[in-house]
Amino acid sequence: MSKREGSLDAPSRRPIAWQDADYYDEASLHGELERVFDICHGCRRCVNLCNAFPTLFDLVDDGKTGEVDGVDKHDFGKVVDQCYLCDLCFMTKCPYVPPHVWNVDFPHLMLRAKAVKFRKGEVRMRDRILTSTDALGKLAAIPVVAQTVNAANHNGVARAALQSLLGVDKRRELPPYAPVKFRGAADVQDRWPVRDGERTPGKVAIFATCYINYNEPGIGHDLVAVLAHNQIPTVLAQQEACCGMPKLELGDLDGVRRLKELNIPALAELAREGYGILAAVPSCALMFKQELPLLFPDDADVKMVADAMFDPFEYFMLRHRDGLLKTDFTQALGKVAYHIPCHGRVQNVGQKTRETLQLIPGTEITTVERCAGHDGTWGVKKEFYEQSMKIGRPVFRLMAQVQPDFISSDCPIAGRHIQQGIRDGGTDLKAEKAHPLTLLRKAYGL
């Protein structure tokens, strides 16, 4: 095999030319969609990953010719709508990703199609609202408002109205809003001396994320407690806005740029000062590690932040390998059914959460490596809810069958989705849902 073909080399991604005029040319886009869809049709390895590929193959099989050229190009959008940019086809299945000469990057082609759709104004107001996480959080997390919103989310009449108005499925359990957000309540401490490791900076900054700030601040407090127990000097990022992943999934790339310009200067300054940066939501860490560097390949500050960004358990396990993580655990966890979210897997750091939790004596980890099907805002929408639950069923079954004491996922939304799926499937499971950071804090006895 020639070096040019290189299909045995590690997958590599190419910068996203989203600021070029050709990126938004529909004729050019349709030509690339047809080229890639034809390769996918001839391969079909990804048929079981998500609903994008079965949708494509059904369109081909039911078309006039039995090939991609028999599919009406207007129907290509049906495939695009089923893709929620989990990246698993690129990372785990496709043999034709770069550096292969065929250069198939299915998720980023779907991103291009979403960006064209967004620029044409063909997105619902519902989708613009759902992806404006900061605006929603700042409003809904006001103490009295938070209580009202949380009550409405459990009221059948209110949920029916929300479904009718915005298309948010009334069956979907929505995360609560916290009356006191993480920022402002976090007791971060930086009084200890810095102990740099071979693989990690010895001091960290926390990028709070919208979800931790507004929905489940307890996860952030768990992270702070674990860092304090390990005497790691910790600060909060001076400011933060949404990481941009929801806007990316919508195709609003100018929105991603605006958020980048809010976040990167403060984070880059922390990176220059030698801080590692931790984000407790996998999608947020992935946004800074992968997507922003591909969207802004010439921005030195973006690269600096990417190099400084860690998943918390990636950081902890690297500290452990350097002999710098405390293992003075006082409480066993029993059986933990642990789910690795897609945006954790595609960071390419291995199963660091599982490795960390396995350090805890009296703890048995069952790991599930499948997409749970919630996928950001995709799984809350009425038109995708049933598909979301169908995709998640194997995960629900695998998590429940071990009769765990805890069900856990690095993605807090996926954890909530899994809990709902298990219960709605009729399984009487007594397991507690807990984020891995919550479990680690519990094991330390903090």
Secondary structure tally: strands = 8
Shape: globular
Low-confidence segments: 1-6
**The CATH top-level class label of the largest domain:** Alpha Beta
The secondary-structure class comes to alpha/beta
H/E element string?
HHHHHHHHHEHHEHHEHHEHEHHEHEHEH
Helix share bin: 40-55%
Strand order of the largest sheet: 2-1-3-4
How does CATH name the architecture of the largest domain? Answer: 3-Layer(aba) Sandwich
Strand content: 5-15%
The gyration radius over C-alpha positions equals 22 Å
- The fold-level CATH name of the largest domain is Rossmann fold
Q: Cα distance, first to last residue?
A: 55 Å
* Structural domain tally: 4
Specify the number of helices: 21
Largest sheet: 4 strands, parallel
The averaged pLDDT comes out at 93
Protein name: Fe-S oxidoreductase
Keywords: 4Fe-4S, Iron, Iron-sulfur, Metal-binding, Repeat
InterPro entries: Cys_rich_dom
